[in-house]
Amino acid sequence: MLNPVKKIAAVHDLSGIGRVSLTTVIPILSSMGVQVCPLPTAVLSSHTQYPDFYKVDLTSHLKPFIEHWKQLQLQFDAIYSGYLASAAQVEIVEYLIDTFYKEGMLVVVDPVMGDNGKRYASLGLDLVKEMQRLIKKADIITPNMTEAALLLDEEYREEIDTGTIKEWLLRLSQKGPSTVVITSVPEHPRNKTTSVIAYESKTKRFWKVSCHYLPANYPGTGDSFTSVLTGALLQGDSLPIALDRAVQFISWGVRSTFGHSYDTREGIILERILKNLDNPVVMGTYELME
Ligand code: PXL
Questions:
Q1: Is residue 31 in contact with ligand 1, taking CB distance under 6 Å?
Q2: Is pLDDT at 48 greater than 80 in this prediction?
Q3: CA-angle at 107, arms to 205 and 202, nearest 5°
């Protein structure tokens, strides 16, 4: 049966406070005309950057969810995984991909493991090893600098030169994904911008989108970024345009939130900018890197 709108299986947690994971993935992809089918990895009172969060790990429930979907003979246009609550969930995501794989399906793995050089609380090193395997099944991966270092068994670095970042992108792509996008790449030398740099093995091209850096850290921006990127690709955008739209969306979010005196742990104020996703594609700033 043909899906009237594109359908995506979204494997992420549901966190009650702090806009991350499903509370960003669902509104963004729905606004972009994609039907989101959540496979919740955990339910948390808040994301894990608050102290003393309460977490219900759903590892043992995921297979029965998938078996029911199998019975329903669902056809997914994409599978998109993010925060996994345990290393054991990797094998389950692999099973989900193998079960529903069909020609032309987009598999996006955001290897959510940490940020700013640190692993997230409650995620173990065993997850890193498993995530190194999961990315082999992906068409697109979107690690930040911290996660890229973990995937490559490299030290996290605050500064990185163009040659090294290209080498990291190539090494990650050689593991399987045809498109690798590294987010929050610091500029060298630091000039108040931060970049997203991507490599597409099909065309052997490197793309870069830079944006102005604001000194604030909002959890969940990685989830919003990958959601817009995925939605744009499902709408038929090219990779550089999809990257541009995702960077623009995060810049709007950060800039419209930064002006408020506000608990930054709650993330960017998505509700104010979701309608921007309806805008026609405007001239962006992507560059082809030599
Ligand atoms: O956005 C990353 C993320 C997702 N899910 C949970 C998190 C975090 C980051 O802190 O704690 C539960």
A1: no
A2: yes
A3: 20
**Extents of the domains making up the chain:** 6-289
- Is residue 41 within 6 Å of ligand 1 at its C-beta? no
Which of 13, 17, 20 is the pocket-test mutation for ligand 1 (most atoms within 8 Å of CB)? 20
pLDDT at 11: 99
DSSP labels for 183-238?
A: EEEEPSS--SEEEEEEEETTTTEEEEEEEE--S---TTHHHHHHHHHHHHHHTT--
**What CATH fold (topology level) applies to the domain 6-289?**
UDP-N-acetylmuramoyl-L-alanine:D-glutamate ligase (3.40.1190)
Q: Full-prediction pTM beyond 0.85?
A: yes
Instruction: For residue 130, report the phi and psi dihedrals to the nearest 5 degrees.
Output: -70, -40
